Protein: non-specific serine/threonine protein kinase
Organism: Stentor coeruleus
Amino acid sequence: MFFLLISVALAQLALPKQELVLISTLEGKIHALNSLGVYQWTLDTNKPLISSYYSEIAFEENPAPLITTLSGEVVEFVNGNFIKLRQNIKDLVERPPDYVRNRIYIGEKSLRAYILDKNSGDVLGYYENSQQFSQDKTSETITIGLVNYMYSVLDANTMNTIYNISYTELLTLHKTINIHKTNTDFFSYLQNIDGAITALHSFDTAGELSKEVYIPEYTQKIKLNNVGNNMIYAELVDENDEGKNVFALTHEPLLMIEGQIEEKVYWWWVILLLIPLLYGLLKRKKTIQVMKSEAAVETVEVVEKKKIELFVDKILGHGSQGTTVFEGMFQERPVAVKRMLKNCIKEAKQEVSLLIKADAHPNVVTFFAWEEDDTFVYLAFEKCVGTLADVVTESIKKKKKGLKIKKIPEILKLLHDSALGLSYLHKLNIVHRDIKPMNILIDSKNIAKIADMASGKRLAKDVSSFGTQAHGSSGWQPKEVLANQRRTKAVDIFSLGCTFYYSLTKGGHPFGSRIQRDNNILSSNYSLKGISNEAKHLIQKMIQMDFSKRPQIDYVHQHCLFWSSQIKLNFLQDVSDLLEAEGNGSLLEIELECYCKFMMDRPWDEVLGAEFIANLGKYRKYDHSSVKDLLRVIRNKMHHFHDMPELLKVLVGPMPDGFFEFFDKRFPLLFITLFDYLEISGNRLISKYIKI
């Protein structure tokens, strides 16, 4: 789409008869002359057209790091020789991401365009990636497109950059222009330009952007030019060219390491390419596969690729920008195949690069393979039976899959899985940025898995916040995203909090209907009706407007919402023992009694009933208005449960679930109020249960 827009814009240019020539230089400046050599204007893009970064360990790597030339060719330094690869940087960027010996190799392409007044050079509009053209209408404009190719090598453990190389070219129609060598004014200007010239471009009278790059036809050496800030580029030079500012692959900045140019052929790449071709000749291509079920026999069309089989009639779901998920097969296992348009390759590479590091966790979806053709990118993931949205709401899709709505304990287990998966991502400094029920998958073993990492971002070490570029889905983003403010990992906590409420209320949302959500988020207008006190306590923290007050993900998955009945009873016993240890009339007892006073509107003996109370009088005298004494009753009955009369055992229910439920129904605020008090007061007991 980007190239189409630029091509249309160029085709519509109404230019004067005099040609306009553009000269791009290394530091990112584009000078405009007419073909007679008269200077017109200069556009400063503020970004070098060639750049690189090499860490301290980059030149200790095997294979050696790559270096780009002014024309986008790639060389490497091996055994004392510079070796020119057959692939250029564009070829490297177009490759699928790769993972070899704990290194991730990944490419990225980005697009920019300037709309200029052709006479003055004033910038009238600017376009970048998915943004729209912002152009002041004028009949005399030109469009300059810039395509940046970046190839990076990352450490898979730390995700730190080992090195990267970047090359930017002006978008052209590649029609060579002819400027006569007798035009001394023009070539005199070229010689006086400050900075290395990367290319010449011209708008000819037909309105086409043309290009000519000057590279010596016969070269015997390569020199490395140091342009500062740890950025170098390679240059093919004539044998008699002495060269200046030569950069060595050593710590001596003026030493030039020479070597013959060799064309390095990767025979193993050739073999790998031949294998699928031979395989295709030997094996008859399948186009129809019969799938049998108990009810009927169904015919399914199969698109067979090198490794991934795609069942185009078996659609699992749809995403944005033409993305579709199909059933498929990979290495004889059922998979989900995510098919994305080729113009979404950046998002695909982003998703794969993050999953390569993160999918070792059981609560992150597993990535298997990547393939692409001229139109689509295909990603193969483990196949799951549905999404979290499917298993908590009524839907036709759910019924087709035979899914059943889960009960609250089962839903809580899935939510806990989700929190554990997100915790793993955050430990890797990965921010998901699009958490919602539709992006949490459920496998056949009822395990929840974080999926769809296309919007994810890996933060650099010791970096906690990032920029304001929009990501995520409407209605699931916090205020700082909607207000275009800087964000932190807390964006995921907010989205997960909304997901929790959605799941526990079978499709509800704390910020209302779909149309109202974003406005309600901005105005902090929410409701947490219909959920337990423990869930309300946690979710209220997670969806706070002030992102700095939202809890860390490790707090979330350890919260008492996910505790079993036994752990909750242990907590109540520990609180009781703590009060007893402090002694009668202690400050802790006074504060706790005041904090919990609102939770009882009458003496607790009236709530427990005469039969239960009759069993207490034999052992100890209690103050029926005291929370401390109520906790002691619960503690003592836990310890002497087997000594209780059978009728009383039936009344309170079995240990531990029935026993805890007996007291929780009669004092629904007791447990969460004690938990909240100890948390707010910073009591050491809370650290026994929540470790951050």
User: Anything to note?
Assistant: The chain has four domains: 2-264, 300-383, 389-561, 566-688. The first strand starts at residue 20 and ends at 25. The radius of gyration is 33 Å. The mean pLDDT is 76.
